[in-house]
Every structure is written in structure tokens, then in C-alpha cells.
Amino acid sequence: MADTTTLLTNIGELVTNDPSRDGTPLGIVCGAALVTDGSRILWAGRAADAPPTDIARDVGGRAVIPGFVDSHAHLVFAGDRSAEFEARMSGKPYAAGGIRTTVAATRAATDEELTAQVARHVTEMRRQGTTTVEIKSGYGLTSHDEARALVIAGQFTGETTYLGAHVVPEGVEPGEYVDLVTGAMLERCAPHARWVDVFCEKGAFDADQARAILQAGKAKGLLPRIHANQLGHGPGITVACEVGAASADHCTYATDEDLANLREAGVVATLLPGVEFSTRSPYPDGRRFIDAGVTVAIATDCNPGSCYTSSVPFCIAVAVRDMHLTPAEALWAATAGSAQALRRDDIGRLGSGARADYVVLEAPSFLHLAYRPGVPLIAEVSSARWSRGDDSLLKK
Ligand code: NIG
Ligand code: FE
After folding, report:
1. Which of 14, 40, 255, 356 has its C-alpha lying 20 to 30 A from 280's C-alpha?
2. What is the pLDDT of residues 226-248, one digit of tens each?
3. Separation of alpha carbons 13 and 390, rounded Å
4. Hey, what domains does the chain have and what are their CATH numbers?
5. What is the Å distance from ligand 1's center to 212 Cα?
6. What is the DSSP letter of 113?
């Protein structure tokens, strides 16, 4: 039996991310309608031209946008680091070493506790319009704890990332740890991950170690991505381009040469505005990236240390206010850009064949996402598939 078709009509402003619609990257259609079969978009266009469907729903002139793609999140953890945040707001700088506090709490937690924690954050994200999330390991740092984090993450998403190389754990010699991350730990984790990641930074892993870790992951069939240039200028972006990473994330410190390399190598720069906000660090100038022809994504980096927000709308507002993206560029970055950062073409857009992952805004225009910061503007998230348990937030 064919799936029931639904017409969503009287859409004041539909963001398709199909530039052929209006000659801009957002591909806006006014007075629009969408037809879905509950899992895929069958048709999008002007309401007057819509085909007949089984069911029709009027959204009252509200704006409809693609569901947010949060391409960078660390959700498998226990405990919080609110005291560290408080100290930071009194002037203490953020340092990579804080990760070890969360590692101790995460190792001590049961599988049930960790699973409940991920479920809570995924639900929180969904309420804020996110329909796809990437989830990293990285707070276990033993073969057992990293593999269990990935198995738990895999209950919620297909976009799982092996981040055994988050930091060198207490009491372990760095060389030995890199051998473990590229050897026995990778062996255990690879079957449960799509991506391999490394924190390339002073206090974490250097360029040679990062290269070795990403190459080892690639040899096991994982796709590379990287935490690069977060705390200072460094080699992370260069390594990303050398290994053909899908995305270099953070890029808080990037030289003109880094930007040229990202553009040439076709590596997405994923900016994480919540991190600079929550660590009170200088923001990278997103305008520079866009003007240099680099593809930009925006994600939350939701984690207990550097940025404990699960809200993409918040990140969009900060990207506009403090990274100098236009509202249109910021929305594109958090949907189409972050889909590219995950090498996906079935999400981050609303056109025939794409997943029916859309958000109805309690607003007439997407502009309100940045114009009305902190306001709950998510009226509806395409929810039929979520409630059936096979939404893209769940593993495919
Ligand atoms: O992306 N930079 C590395 N990892 C996380 C922070 C993790 C933590 O502080 O617990 C980040 O910012
Ligand atoms: Fe991160």
C-alpha cells in the first residue's frame, strides 16, 4: 500500500536551499507548499501549483525551513563542569585538560545512565529543530569505554564518530596512547563508527600524531574529520586538507593560507559559535571564510566543557551577531553547509527526494532566528518518523 501523502500548505516562506528557485543559496519560495509521504519530500513549490494529496494541512503563513543538521556534538558523557564554567567567567582560560574530569565521570557511569543522558540531549536538540546529529565518543579513552560510547551513540544516529584521540589519558605515555588509538582501540571501535576525529592542538595531539590517527582510521574505512585551530594557530587545518577531511571544525585561528587550502581541498570549515561564547574567546570572522570561497557549516559542539548548548538557533544568532554572517548565510551553514560537512545530500534541503526533515517556525521568516535570539520559535519538527522511532536522529 502506498504511503499517505500530505500537503503542507499556506507556507509564508519556504527555504529549500535550492538556488534554482530564486537565484540565491536559500532558494526561497513565497506562498509555498510541500508534499511528503512521511519519509521523503515528493514535491515543493508554489501552493497554487501543488498536486493532489490524501491529507492537507494549513500552516497559517508560517515559515518552513530544512531541519538543522548538527554536525558536531559530544553527547556521550556523565557529570557536568559548571564549576569550571564559573571559574572561566571569572577569568580562568579554557584548557584541553578539563576533558579528563569528564572522562573520570563517564567511565564511572553505567550504560543505562549514559544512554539516558544521550536521549535527554537528543530530545532537547529535536525540540530546537535539529533533525540530524553527529555524536562523538571521546570521554572513555580506553578500548572498552570508547567502543561502548559508540554503541550507545549508534542507538541515536548513523553519524557516529570515533574520537579516541580526544586527549591523552592520565598516566599514559603519549606515544603508547597513539599506538593504542591507531591499533587495538581502532579495531574495537571501527565497526561502530562512520567517522574518525582527532583533537589536533597544543595539550592534545600534534600534526604527526593527528595525521597518523586519521590515516589509520581511513585504512579501516572511516571518514576523517578534525578538531583544528581551536586554541591557537597550528597545523590542524593543514592536516585536514592533506588527508581529505570532510570538515575542519572550530577554525577559530586561521591564516589566509589556511583559508586558501580549505577552499582548494574542498574541506568544509565548521564554525562553532557557542564555543567562543561559552569560553569567552575571540570569535573567528566568518565573513573572511565566506569571502575566501570556503564552504562554512555551523554546529553546536554540545559538550560539558567548552560549550554546553544543544541549540542550533542560538548558534545561528551568535554567528550573525559576532561572526558577521548574514542571517541567510548562517541558516544555510546550519543546514546545507553542515549536511556537506557530513557528506550527505539527502538532508539540509527541501526538494524532491530529500528526507522529509523540516521545521515549521513560529515566525513569518527565517530572519527571526537571529532577530529574536533565545525565543522558542520552533512550532513543529517533522515528527511522524521520530515518533515511529526511525527518524534520522535514530540510526538508519
Ligand atoms: O570541541 N576541543 C575538544 N573537544 C571539545 C571540548 C571537550 C571538553 O572540554 O570536554 C570541543 O571543544
Ligand atoms: Fe568538539
Report:
1. 255
2. 999 999 999 999 999 999 999 99
3. 28
4. 6-67+349-387 (2.30.40.10), 69-341 (3.20.20.140)
5. 21
6. H
What is the number of the ligand 1 atom nearest to the C-alpha of 72? 1
Does residue 128 have its Cβ closer than 6 Å to ligand 1?
no
Pocket-testing residue among 106, 161, 306, 307, ligand 1, by greatest number of atoms within 8 A of Cβ: 306
Cα-flanking dihedrals φ and ψ of residue 160, to 5°?
A: -100, 140
Atom 5, ligand 1: residue with shortest CA distance: 306
Q: Would you say residue 276 has pLDDT above 70?
A: yes
The predicted-structure confidence for 188-211, as pLDDT tens digits, reads as follows 999 999 999 999 999 999 999 999
Averaged confidence pLDDT in the chain: 95
| Ligand 1 binding pocket includes 276 (Cβ within 6 Å) | no
Helices (H), the chain: 82-89, 99-108, 111-127, 143-153, 174-182, 184-189, 207-219, 236-243, 256-265, 273-279, 286-291, 312-322, 327-332, 338-341, 368-371, 384-387
Atom of ligand 1 nearest to the CA of 301: 1
User: Model pTM?
Assistant: 0.96
Closest C-alpha residue for ligand 1 atom 12:
306
Which residue type sits at 158? G
pLDDT at residue 271 greater than cutoff 80: yes
Over 90: is that where the pLDDT of 86 sits? yes
